[in-house]
Amino acid sequence: MQKLTRIITLTVALLMITGCSYFGVYKRDLPQGNLVTEGMVEQLQTGMNRQQVVGLMGSPLLEAPFDASQWDYVYRLDEAYGGVEQRRVTLTFAGGRVVEIEREGDFSKAPSLSDERGIGPDNETVSTTQGAPLDNVTPDRP
Fold first, then answer.
1. Contacts of residue 85, Cβ cutoff 8 Å, sequence gap at least 6
2. Which CATH architecture best describes the domain 27-109?
3. Within 13 A of 24's CA, how many CA atoms are on the CB side?
4. What residue ranges do the domains of the chain occupy?
5. pTM of the predicted structure, to 2 decimals
6. Could you give the CA distance from residue 51 to residue 66 in angstroms, rounded to a whole number?
7. Are 61 and 33 in contact (CB under 8 A)?
8. Contact indicator for 77, 111 with CB cutoff of 8 Å
9. Cα(89)–Cα(34) distance, rounded to whole angstroms?
10. Which residues contact 114 (CB under 8 A, 6 or more apart)?
11. Residues 72-129: pLDDT tens digits?
């Protein structure tokens, strides 16, 4: 009986130890920040005002808290089973106009964004239901 208890205990312990490492943990790519592409950066020019920059690049991820003359657009992609890709564009303003554009990172290739298949409706389903009338839908009212 003691042998059976030892064998069962050892088997359970081995299963618990190997169970955690045998089947890897699911990871996914984690994009963060402003998506900055080479085309967007090429359109930036010194002399542009803040509204033109926001229209082209969107609102900045970081704005200097004590001096609003510097905007940072940062994009970071932490690949699940790979490395980290980071891009940064820093714009310096003087008198409401861009005076300096600094680039950091590799803008030559497009960022690899994974396709989220299996989550949410398919593109075909969305396109066929967008024009459908909402007959029996009543709004929620408090």
1. 76, 77, 79, 105, 106, 111, 112
2. 2-Layer Sandwich (3.30)
3. 5
4. 27-109
5. 0.58
6. 20
7. yes
8. yes
9. 10
10. 28, 29
11. 998 888 888 788 888 899 999 999 899 999 988 887 777 666 555 444 344 444 444 4
